[in-house]
Amino acid sequence: MSYLKSNTLFEQIRTEDVYRHIPRPVLLADHLLTPDNIGAMIRLADNIGATEICFLGREEEHKLGKVRRAAASSRDNIRWYFSEETDLRKIVPANKKIVAIETADNATCIYDTELPEDVAFIVGSESHGLSDALLAQCDQVVYIPVPGPTRSLNVSHAAAVALFEWQRQMRIGKKKYRHLFFDLDRTLWDFDAAAEVAFERIYEKYDLKALGVPSAHEFHEVYHPLNEQLWVQYRANAITKDELNRTRFLKPLEHYGIHDVDLADHLSEDYVYWSPRIVRLVPGTMELLDYLKPKYHLHLITNGFQEVQHTKLNGSGMAPYFETLTVSEEVGVKKPNPDIFLYALQKAGAQAEESLMIGDEMAVDIDGARAVGMDTLLFNPKGEPVEGERTYEVRDLRDIKTIC
Question: Given 30, 185, 190, 375, which residue is catalytic?
């Protein structure tokens, strides 16, 4: 384990994704006294992704140069302003619930309180807290228990605790999805890594070097684009499964001047046997599944062959995580045909509006799921430019934990 800069660790977290289904919070602070605390509150509002922060009081009473230095780059990332208004409803939108963070006689412990989804938090000044007049305008008052010898929190620390407790509650209790549907190949199963090893085995077994094939790697490089083209035809029902299996090895052999149908069939049989038994998972797969399993119903939708996909799941240890597996062969249609997604939803007992489809191919996984009303997440590990609409996008599977 080694140190990782926060900008690197969190680079895939997009504010618009976090707040796609919940409103952004608003912050207010009443007559803060020190530039350091004002700057810290601006930075906190920026950290959490708030829409704005309002400081009650007169702007001219503060040394704004020191405030800006304390806020650092956050001063340019978020709207912050001063107001002498005493009616909070003239500052806070009517739809937001105002929650005071204060040690008042009617306050409830924040950890035992269900916080509102659409929230505006307000904190009081360092010396006097919130006035009775302001507390009377709040919808809720919460306190943060402090077990240490010093029983008062710094105002920016208190606001940070409240904001991240609110976000935690939103992530756990306000989730939109109940069912997550995954593609298998190149989303969870590292298809290309397993194929490379399978090619090395069949290359040695059939002594392809003696037949003029320079290396297993080069043979796979020739095979790969031809196989992709054939899968496009197979998904379009232009060729059969048997034609796919034979042709994807016959064509690469012919590339090297080898015209041997029997050899192509043997290579295909061995490849179909070995490739699902060589376990190679996309980094982060098991960590993600461990995280998601207690929280969601997990399912798979795949265009692969039934016997191959079942072998992958059982051999990799992924099978216990999934409640249903929908394979194109059992449905009679392939992704992106909407019928396979409808079939999978029905099999899972799920509704489209409570489901998220996760896959690596825009045209196959994402467009097909969108056609039946599902939200979608594109797994794009290389960060390649991809056209088309999707609900979310990540480069690392583990970043899905920030969304789900």
Answer: 185
Catalytic residue chosen out of the listed positions 112, 118, 132, 183: 183
Q: Which fold has domain 179-188+281-402?
A: Rossmann fold (3.40.50)
Model pLDDT, residue 100: 96
- Residue spans of the domains in the chain: they are 22-173, 179-188+281-402, 191-274
183 catalytically annotated: yes
Architecture per CATH, domain 22-173, reads as 3-Layer(aba) Sandwich (3.40)
* 3-state secondary structure string across the chain: CCCCCHHHHCCCCCHHHHCCCCCCCEEEEECCCCHHHHHHHHHHHHHHCCCEEEEECCHHHCCHHHHHHHHHHHHHCCEEEEECCCCHHHCCCCCCEEEEECCCCCCEEHHHCCCCCCEEEEECECCCECCHHHHCCCCEEEECCCCCCCCCCCHHHHHHHHHHHHHHHHHHHCCCCCEEEECCECCCECHHHHHHHHHHHHHHHCCHHHHCCCCHHHHHHHHHHHHHHHHHHHHCCCCCHHHHHHHHHHHHHHHCCCCCHHHHHHHHHHHHHHCCCCCCECCCHHHHHHHHCCCCEEEEEECCCHHHHHHHHHHHCCHHHCCEEEEHHHHCCCCCCHHHHHHHHHHHCCCHHHEEEEECCHHHHHHHHHCCCCEEEEECCCCCCCCCCCCEEECCHHHHHHCC
Q: What is the pLDDT of residues 26-67, one digit of tens each?
A: 999 999 999 999 999 999 999 999 999 999 999 988 899 999
**pTM for this one?**
0.59
Tokens of 41: 């509150």
Phi, psi of 152 (to 5 degrees): -125, 135
Catalytic annotation present for 17: no
Assign a CATH topology to domain 191-274. DNA polymerase; domain 1 (1.10.150)
Provide the pLDDT for residue 179: 96
Task: Give the Cα separation of 115 and 141 in Å (integer).
Answer: 10
